[in-house]
């Protein structure tokens, strides 16, 4: 298991071995820099959205011009009120469409 600091959630976010396998197998386009993309996105997101599918999930996104000609990295985090936070999945997106914007970088 890996932990990433997330100032927005005021704590660390867990990335279990099982969830990492899920991301590696389902979204190999994030390799080999997977941990770097996740760490930077959680540390300094451009936007945080509330998931429409899961009320406790937040979608952290950050634009990377150098990633495949310009793409967003999206890290989906289960953000619990008791302070427990863990990564559900991570992926690359051309545009952001899911969820209501909760916070946006100025």
What would you note in describing this structure?
With 106 residues, the chain is of the alpha+beta class. The protein has one domain (2-98). It contains two helices and seven strands. It has helices at residues 17-26, 34-43, and strands spanning 2-6, 11-15, 47-50, 57-64, 71-79, 85-93, 100-104. It has a five-stranded antiparallel beta sheet with strand order 6-5-4-3-7. The protein has a two-stranded antiparallel ribbon with strand order 1-2. A hairpin with a 6-residue loop joins β3 and β4. The relative contact order is 0.25. The mean pLDDT is 94.
How large a portion of the residues is in β-strands, by DSSP E? 35-45%
Radius of gyration: 13 Å
- SSE pattern: EEHHEEEEE
Count of separate structural domains: 1
| Whole-number mean pLDDT | 94
- Helix/strand/pairing class, anyone? alpha+beta
Order of strands across the main sheet: 6-5-4-3-7
Key structural traits:
two-stranded antiparallel sheet; 106 residues; globular; single chain; five-stranded antiparallel β-sheet; 2 helices; alpha+beta
Write the topology of this structure.
Elements: E1 2-6, E2 11-15, H1 17-26, H2 34-43, E3 47-50, E4 57-64, E5 71-79, E6 85-93, E7 100-104
Antiparallel strand pairs: 1-2, 3-4, 3-7, 4-5, 5-6
Short description:
The protein has 106 residues and is α+β, with helices and mostly antiparallel strands. Helices cover 19% and strands 42% of the residues. It has one domain (2-98).
């Amino acid at each position: 298991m890996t932990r990433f600091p997330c100032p927005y959630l005021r704590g660390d976010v867990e990335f279990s071995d099982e969830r990492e396998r899920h991301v590696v197998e389902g979204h190999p386009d994030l390799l080999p820099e997977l941990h770097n993309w996740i760490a930077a996105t959680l540390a300094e997101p451009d936007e945080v959205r509330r998931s429409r599918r899961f009320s406790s999930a937040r979608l952290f996104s950050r634009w990377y011009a150098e990633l495949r000609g310009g793409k967003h990295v999206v890290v989906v985090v289960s953000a619990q009120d008791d302070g427990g936070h863990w990564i559900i999945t991570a992926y690359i997106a051309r545009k952001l469409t899911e969820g209501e914007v909760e916070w946006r970088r100025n």
